[in-house]
Amino acid sequence: MTVQPPLGMLVELTHRCPLQCGYCSNPLDLMKADRELATSQWQTAFVEAADLGVRQVHLSGGEPTLRRDLEALVSCLSDHGVYTNLITAAVTLTRDRIATLREAGLEHIQVSFQGARRETTELVGRYRGAHEKKRAVAAWAREAGLPLTINAPIHRLNIGEVPNFVALALELDAERLEIANVQYYGWAYLNRAHLLPDYDSVMRQVDYVERVREDLVGRLNIDFVTPDYYADYPKPCMGGWAADAFVLTPDGMMLPCHAAQTIAGLDFDRVTERPLREIWEISDSFNRFRDTEWMPEPCRSCARKDVDFGGCRCQAFAITGDAAATDPSCIHSPLHGALRQMPEPGEIRHRAITRAVEKI
Ligand code: SF4
Ligand code: FES
Question: Any idea what the CATH number is for the domain that residue 35 is in?
């Protein structure tokens, strides 16, 4: 098997975050600050990644702006020719910090909105004043000349606001709007009975997005991450396992996708303990689901196997207990019909570092 170099990486600099969204895709076992890599360790990893071929980085978390060394990290990446995108909840950013990040080489900013209305943003993120703060940050980013993406994670609590998200993105002079139906990993999987929208709302959303997307060509790019649980076929998760991108966790663990550590039986390496190139090219965990040789039936003889790569390994594991199984969002999976059977909702669990392991 020839292994191509990766083009992109998603770096979760920290799990700390001022918001407590119940749809978060971070693991339940959230790390405290003392487990995060030091500045020099991140810089070493970034140089190794650039040497391997990475050309684009998404700096994420948690909330990446809580790292006081963010400017130094952006500058290191930029010096090595890596395009930097900051994914932020924005409530901790100031006008000055945006300017210093821009000077350090930041090239794009993605601001998440938990709702298109103030009440929804505050309700979902559990942070008073968040909506106004995000709007201000979006304006400062544009003022600093940064291209802006508005990220709208969609679930039952805000699916009715999709047209308002479009209006908001236009008003804030965004270049792109990402309407991302929540992927059910981590906290989102735990809260799925609260978050999964009903079928009719999903269909209305799909019709609306398809229509408005065409109307706005040339004014606003709309990326649509479709809802897996109502699809006939899965998405090619991460473009295929270890195909062209990887994830680094706050403590330097290197993963083929953001939920990979939820798969029991796979061991992942840390970039502080093994060269990043070696992990990408020859580690067992990265090779386990690469390409299509590993696939059992029905994927093995399916015409779509090079289109969706059998879907998402993490979702397959979460629902079937077998990471090699066909993703249940596929119509050919024996579990497809059971996918939307939800557990009793109980109480929604808001993301919190100290509550993560002890309560669940
Ligand atoms: Fe994709 Fe496998 Fe379903 Fe075929 S059977 S569509 S390869 S998930
Ligand atoms: Fe891990 Fe989809 S999130 S393969």
Answer: 3.20.20.70
Q: Looking at this predicted complex, what is its ipTM?
A: 0.92
- Residue nearest atom 2 in ligand 2 by C-alpha distance: 312
Q: Give tens-digit pLDDT for 4-35.
A: 999 999 999 999 999 999 999 888 889 999 99
CA 317 to centroid of ligand 2, rounded, Å: 9
Nearest to 330 by CA among 234, 239, 235, 237: 234
Question: Model's pTM, two decimal places?
Answer: 0.93
Mean pLDDT for the chain overall = 93
CA–centroid distance, 179 to ligand 1, in Å, is: 24
**Would you say residue 287 lies in a domain?**
no
Q: Is residue 148 part of a domain?
A: yes
Among 229, 226, 245, smallest CA distance to 286 is for 245
243 in contact with ligand 2, CB cutoff 6 A: no
Q: How many CA atoms lie within 13 A of 283 on its CB side?
A: 23
Does the residue 292 lie in any domain?
A: no
Closest residue by Cα to atom 7, ligand 1, is 305
116 in any annotated domain:
yes
Question: Which of the two residues, 187 and 270, has the higher pLDDT score?
Answer: 270
